[in-house]
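Weekly modeling sync, notes
Attendees: S.R. (lead), two postdocs, one rotation student

Agenda item 3: backlog of single-chain predictions. S.R. asked that every request posted to the team notebook include the full sequence so nobody has to chase files. The rotation student volunteered to paste the first one in as an example of the format we agreed on. Action items at the bottom.

Example entry:
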Amino acid sequence: MKKTIGILGGMGPMATADLFRKITALTGAGRDNDHIRIYIDSNASIPDRTAAILEGGEDPVPAMADALRHLELCGADCVIMPCNTAHYFLPRLEPLTKLPFLSMIQAAANACRDRFPGRTVGILATTGTLSAGLYQEALAGRGVPFLVPDAAERARLMEVIYQGVKAGAPPEAYREAFLSVTKGMAGRGAACFLLACTELPLAVRELGLDLPCADPTEELAKAAIRFCGYSVRGE
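Predicted structure, as returned to the notebook:
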C-alpha cells in the first residue's frame, strides 16, 4: 500500500513550498492520480530555531509539536521538516509521535558521500545549524571531509538567508554576499557545497549559479518519495 507524507513546515514558508514542488517534480508520475498524497502544516509562527539555539529565544518545540499532532490527525505516514536547523530539536520531537521522521541531515550527508567521493564539502548553513554541529557530525560519520565558514562568512550567509531570501529581496541584493562566501571557501579547499539551509537552494536558483552542490531539500524529497513506495523520476 502506498503511503502519505506529512510536511511540518512554515520554517520558512518559501522553503516549505520548495519542498512540495520538489516532491511533485521528482515523483515518477505519468498523471495526476499517480502522485503522493501530502499533508502540509505550514505554521510560520513557529519561533526562530537559530535564536532558540544560540540566544535563549522562545522554544519552538511546543508549536512544532502542535503541527505534528495535526499531521497525525490528517493521516500522515511519515513526517519531514524543510528546515535544517529544526533537526536540532528532533530528539525532543521523536518521542512525541509514533510517526517516523525522515531526516534531511542524513539524506544530504549520504548524497555528499555518494556524489562527491574524496572531495571536501563546504557546509553553507545558519549559525544555529553550524553551532549545533548537525552536518559536521553526519559527514564525519560517513568519512566525508568538510569545511565550515569562518565568522565573517557566517555573518554574510545569515544576511543572504534572513535579509535576502526570507525577506523576499531581489537576488542582486545578496549576490555579492553569497559569492564572497563560496569564493572564500573554495580558496580554502572546498570543492563542492552543501546547501544546508533550505533558503540557500532558492538563492542559488534565483542567482542562476552553477555550483557543484548537494541540495538537502531535494535529497529529503527523494527519501520521502521512496519511503512512500513511489519511484523517483530518472532513477
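Discussion: group reviewed the output briefly. The two ends are 21 Å apart (CA to CA).
Action items: rotation student to repeat for the remaining queue; S.R. to check formatting next week.
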